[in-house]
Hints:
This protein is α+β, with helices and mostly antiparallel strands. Helix content is about 30%, strand content about 35%.
Amino acid sequence: MIEPHELGKMGEDLAAQYLVNKGYQILERNWHSGHKEIDLVALDGTTLVVVEVKTRRSDDYGEPDIAVGKSKQRMLVWAADSYVRYKKLNVDVRFDIVSIVFNGDTPEIEHIEDAFIASLY
Length: 121
């Protein structure tokens, strides 16, 4: 059986490849600022995209993207703000979720663009 860390890495690899195939440019993987982490930072045209990747072995407990609640969203907004400030960027930022479910051997990938609106509250 695949360990959770390995499953997460596999999911991030698949998500990155999926986004590259859609024409995105991956800028960062697992970018950290303190305890904040962004799974993938990408460019979609001129828009900076902060991507949260959620991977599951099955969808028995619902789709993985439902695990991105308000607390996680807030953390991603803070991390994105840190990233933009650190890199001194002046760009539009969008928050996407890539959900990957392994039902059998073939992963099912769902990409939710503009998954939530940035809010620190």
